[in-house]
Amino acid sequence: MIKCSNRSDIPPFLALDSMIEAKALEAKGADIIHLEIGQPSSPAPKAVMQALIEAMGDGDTHGYSVAKGVPALRDAISADYAKTYDARISSDDIAITVGSSTAFALSFLAAFDVGDRVALPTPGYPAYRNLMMAMGIEPVALPARAEQSWMPSLREMESWDELPDGLIIASPHNPTGVVLSESEMKEICDWCQKHSVRLISDEIYHGLTYGKQATTAAHYSSDAIIVSGFSKYFSMTGWRLGWMVIPQDLKPSVERLIANLYISAPTPNQMGAIHAFDATPELDANLARYAANRTILLEGLAPEFLGNHAPCDGAFYLYADISAISNDSQKLADDLLHKAGVAVTAGVDFDPEQGHKHLRLSFAGATKDMHEAVRRINAFIKEHIKTQKSA
Prior knowledge:
This protein is α/β, with parallel strands linked by helices and about 400 residues long. The protein has 13 helices and twelve strands. The chain has a seven-stranded mixed β-sheet with strand order 2-8-7-6-5-3-4, with helices on both faces. The protein is globular and about 65 Å long. The model has no long low-confidence stretch (mean pLDDT about 95).
């Protein structure tokens, strides 16, 4: 038998699998409401698209950029940290990546060795766990469920036989919507510094908060790797542009990894992204729509479906507790898709142990779709409960 690697045998990314299945049904004529994927329905900002068009006609943008990215884009990101957070980050410490996903791969490769252990709040973004497994890094679940008020506990890690080599946090958090306060972020950064634990701070959902303000780890740690990008707040998912703020001790290795892994992010896309930071009014209008969509789901969905849902204070997800009506989130997600025409993601994608009691719904789409999703889900749940009682 021809050799295949064991490390590539990782779990599927169920959110993307759900999207593929939903689109296959649409291709056959089904009417599907998409709540399964964290993708804004709004286009990239107008100024960004215009800049891309102009860049495509410029011969200088047809080749590679330097490995860490177009200097003007890194300058724009540095200026935004100063403006938004009053954080001084040199553009030389910033690298442009092919989406934030590549930034995580670079972080894991640069910071950890095979056999190292990295703690991650659970539920959490599945690609963290899956990528680590493929690289021989052991992901260690750090409970951050309803019993822990949806927050990871530093004391929990201190009770372990061995402290982890790394810790990943995300604020705003996917899928729970938890937003760390300044004091909570500082406590985590200080703890990691004290215990020589490498911190990776996922800040991809910055700009998407409802009543709270997200803070950056850059304020409190020079050793943390910070990951962000243009997919969420900036509505540029398909552009595949992210960035990372790199600690001094990792800069040489990250730059070498970039050069060998993908050489550079797409140059024309980078030229367009420079103008994303000038589009705040347009982007904040999207945020207002997400806030309205959030209210529609929270106020409209049946209590049996919402259950003891997560805070939903940031990002654009509702992590619903469906334990009152089902103990199998994957089956319920499949039934919602095929019987109600609503695509959602099973909680087992984010929490292999307790995710069977949860579903994640994205409210990044059109407001009319949220109203229709509420109508369809509530009708489905009513019939589902009736069937359960008669069984």
